Amino acid sequence: MEGVGGDGPSTAAAALNQRRNEVSKLFQYYLDKSTPHALYRWIGTFVVVLVYALRVYYIQGFYIVSYGLGIYILNLLIGFLSPLVDPELEPSDGPSLPTKGSDEFKPFIRRLPEFKFWYAITKAFCIAFIMTFFSMFDVPVFWPILLCYWLVLFALTMKRQIMHMIKYKYIPFNIGKQTYKGKKPASSASSPRAD
Question: How close are the terminal C-alpha atoms of the chain, in Å?
Answer without folding.
Answer: 113
